Amino acid sequence: MRTSEPTPGPDADAAFTSGLATAVVLAVLAIALAVRSGSVTLLSGVVLVLVVLPAVFVVTSCVLAVWLGYDPDVVDAYELTQSLREQAEE
User: Fold this and answer.
1) 5 assigned to some structural domain
2) Looking at residue 64, what is its pLDDT?
3) Half-sphere exposure of 74 toward its Cβ, with a 13 Å CA cutoff?
4) pLDDT band at residue 1, thresholds of 50, 70 and 90?
5) pLDDT band at 84 (very low <50, low <70, confident <90, very high)
6) Cα–Cα distance list, 7 to 12, 29, 83 (Å)
7) Residue 8: DSSP 8-state
8) Positive or negative: CA dihedral 62, 72, 18, 78
9) In sequence order, which ranges of the chain are alpha helices (DSSP H)?
10) Residue 80 included in any domain
11) Which pairs from 77-84 meet CB under 8 Å and 24+ separation?
12) 16 assigned to some structural domain
């Protein structure tokens, strides 16, 4: 039996959204800086964006979800994505 925990509020939703955006922007900037400095070729930079960026997105969302207190249930994750879509539409 699960214990009843309070659900995270709108501040947690905003922190989740801004945390994801910050992580993705920092990852893109790091890859761009590596390409610009010449340590990574342009083709390798594109591959990094296609491979590393989704991994950064998933890892960051998992860390933020645990840190902000979201329930790890799949149904709650679906509800979170729905609420984020509704916020984006407003």
Assistant:
1) no
2) 87
3) 0
4) very low
5) low
6) 9, 34, 13
7) P
8) positive
9) 10-37, 42-68, 74-89
10) yes
11) 80/13, 80/16, 83/13, 84/13, 84/16, 84/17
12) yes
